[in-house]
Amino acid sequence: MNALVIGTGVNELVCAHYLARAGHQVLVLEDRAAHGDAGNDSGWIPERILHDLRLQESGLKVERPDPWITAPLPGGGRLELWRDMARSVEAIRRVSPHDAAKWPEFCERMARVARLLETVYTAPPPDLLTRSAGGLRALAGLGFRAHRLGRQGIEDLLRLLPISAADFLDDNFESDALKGLLGAAGVMHLCQGPRSGGTAFRLLHHHAGNPPGVFRPPESNVRDVLSRLPGVEIRRGVGVARIVVRAGRVSEVVLESGEERPAALVVSGADPRRTLLELMDPGWLDPELVRAVQHIRRRGVAARVDLALEHTPGFARLAVAPSLDYLERAYDDAKHGRVSRAPYLEVTNGGKTAEGRHRLDVHVQYAPYALADGQWDDDRRRALGEIAVREMSEQGVDVGSAVITRVLSPRDMEAEYGCPEGQVDQAEATLDQSFFMRPTPELAHYRTPVGGLYLCGTGMHPGGGVAGAGGRNAAREIALDLRNK
Fold first, then answer.
1. What's the gap between Cα 314 and its chain centre?
2. DSSP alpha helices (H): ranges in 233-314?
3. Which end of the chain has fewer CB atoms within 10 angstroms, the N or the C?
4. pLDDT tens digit string along 374-409?
């Protein structure tokens, strides 16, 4: 069967290669608006994908910086968290002996629950209302794994899911610096603050696939590796204008050039709203589903600032999130449609530029997609870059004579990378848009009501931060449907 995959993000490429392994002829179209990964290959790659696609033998390189995160301290110096537990304990002891004593147990408890999350992420989300034998077996297996957590693990899981990151961290630690570092992971790419319910779950999400005590997703060259693997055809710079449906099934895809590509199987990495309401005629869908898709939340609040430095920055990844209160105040601005006056920053050492300078890639949050006053223009972008540089300097980061080389607002992220409303996860990864509710209960298993049309982007379970899992899960559901035809 001819299969057509829309988008060249990691999920789309993983899905394409699994389809090719199953005997399909696969064409991948590089539709920029299809993948919302913003040119970023961050995320834990499940072991099954590494093995099946032989990624390590094909040149996969995963970055594992040590220390994995650094934070400037108010009185000078830095807090550095290491992959080595003992080194992290010593670093934390300098700011809080109490927190240093709690760190190893906290990390082990989080890692135990995160391992259950890894199991959930590497399979389609469980259908709680299933009556099929296979579905019941999957639910039973998940229940057995949850039971193996023991009493403490189950209590941790049930407490973690609905609670705010702030409440959870306040229960465990006293250091503002440590709580700010961890709380930032709980709100990354969310239009929420650390005192919002469900943000502790996001902290746990970023621990999945990591060793105990590491709460940021790794980065790799996985997309480049997938692009080089044989077995699928990739066409670059091709925009998709329309998915044609006839008699309730996909029949072809029309490109922006006017070219028509027949396809009995189409897998879209575009966000669900664009796929179902813009690329195809929504008249094929039930009105209730149309309404649900229209209400998928995808508010983007993150921008990007690129800097060039003359000197070595002295860190691999640095967070400007001095406290939970700092993060909450930054969110207060954004929820009223204003750019934060003191934003949360996550700064990554991007290596050297062509001119030999040192590049810093700065994640700036909170900068809302929709401004209450005015629009994103060159003046707003320039001001955002200056805010980032100023805040880094005020927090003790040596930016010297940093040159702002590029600023991408959330609207630029949408235009350049296809992130809807600037949201890299396509649908906000809040608890009510996760698992079997991602992006809606009707679409949670990657299939749509239109025969032969499936979804595999970051808007689907398990979302961003788990590289390729959504693509593999979608391919499994497609294979199951074809077997049952």
1. 26
2. 272-274, 287-294
3. C
4. 999 999 999 999 999 999 999 989 888 899 999 999
